[in-house]
Amino acid sequence: MIVVLARIKGLIKAFLTNLGLLVALSFATGSFSSLFLAGLDWIQHNGSYLYALPLVGLIFQSFKVPAYLIIPATWLSHLAGASVGREGTAVTMGKVLGEKFSDIDLFSKAGMAAGFASVFGTPLAGAFFALEVGEVGKINFRHIPACLFAAFFANYVSLHVYGTKHLSYPSVFLPEFSGAFYAKLALLGLFLALIAFLYKRSESIIISAFDKSPVQGPLKGILAGLILFGVLSIPEFHETIGLGSEFLLRPFTSVAPDFALWKLLATNLSLGLGFKGGEATPLFLIGSHAASGFASWFSLPLGLSAAIGFVSLYGGLAKTPIAATFLGMELFGPSAWFIYFIITLIVLFGSGKKGIFSNQTWADYLPKPIY
């Protein structure tokens, strides 16, 4: 009996210790996310300085940016006008904080969940993103409670302690069932898979070409900045400068499919040339604008198509279909949840083995794309 009581006491102590660490981790991550978003908001309202791109490129080429400095590094990229996102920064920040609190993998996952959730205001998507992203097709179910707790609490801290505001998206609804409608949706999935494949392929080409550049050392960073400055100075690329959050709602009411092409190229160049930031927001923009263009060509509902492109292109390249489904439900309502899931799977397998996270592996049981 004494042994049993001692065992129970030890379990309770371990539970309370881990709970306290999770609370502290979630609060810290929500706080840093709020600071990060406030900085991005300030940059967006004060304009980008393209002429600073060579200097920022020089900094990134001269010094390896440690993970704990990813927030100021991302601010620098945005301030100079690079076409990068924010989720990679938030997830990296959360992971670093989690590893500082404990070397247990659980806290790394919980920190990632908290970072994603608090930067987008989507706790369910954040929790399942952290659970899915490590290995495609495999989830550690023991981590679910901690990731959910961290995601919801960090999001609460960001919203209610710091007053962070997130963009409100329109709710989308399904029209009446018809075979033609679902055939068109399948075509939309294949269209998005093609865009995802081209995105990864062009990114690989840019990275490979820049790695082989005869210019090395700090001058290589200056060259990167000059190249990106030249491209972003072209009129067609002006809307691709920076985060681009002011265009997130546009594809739900109007059609501008050419923007998807320019944003894809600008983002590939920005990241391929070494500038820091995530890929989620650019992919949201690319997917939603491309899908709204597809909707206009094939007579699909504009808002629904934009929502599908928004979540499925990113979810397919991140290889996180459950997170993409919850992202769609949290942003656009639950009515099309199964469509988000199915089309994300089409993009996931259609875009190839490689996603946007290079260290990702595939579960053994899961069939892999042949390319």
UniProtKB/TrEMBL annotation:
<keyword id="KW-0812">Transmembrane</keyword>
<dbReference type="InterPro" id="IPR014743">
    <property type="entry name" value="Cl-channel_core"/>
</dbReference>
<dbReference type="InterPro" id="IPR050368">
    <property type="entry name" value="ClC-type_chloride_channel"/>
</dbReference>
<dbReference type="InterPro" id="IPR001807">
    <property type="entry name" value="ClC"/>
</dbReference>
<dbReference type="Pfam" id="PF00654">
    <property type="entry name" value="Voltage_CLC"/>
</dbReference>
<feature type="transmembrane region" description="Helical">
    <location>
        <begin position="335"/>
        <end position="352"/>
    </location>
</feature>
<feature type="transmembrane region" description="Helical">
    <location>
        <begin position="49"/>
        <end position="71"/>
    </location>
</feature>
<feature type="transmembrane region" description="Helical">
    <location>
        <begin position="15"/>
        <end position="37"/>
    </location>
</feature>
<feature type="transmembrane region" description="Helical">
    <location>
        <begin position="181"/>
        <end position="199"/>
    </location>
</feature>
<protein>
    <recommendedName>
        <fullName>Chloride channel protein</fullName>
    </recommendedName>
</protein>
<feature type="transmembrane region" description="Helical">
    <location>
        <begin position="110"/>
        <end position="131"/>
    </location>
</feature>
<feature type="transmembrane region" description="Helical">
    <location>
        <begin position="143"/>
        <end position="161"/>
    </location>
</feature>
<keyword id="KW-1133">Transmembrane helix</keyword>
<keyword id="KW-0472">Membrane</keyword>
<feature type="transmembrane region" description="Helical">
    <location>
        <begin position="294"/>
        <end position="315"/>
    </location>
</feature>
<dbReference type="GO" id="GO:0015108">
    <property type="term" value="F:chloride transmembrane transporter activity"/>
</dbReference>
<dbReference type="GO" id="GO:0016020">
    <property type="term" value="C:membrane"/>
</dbReference>
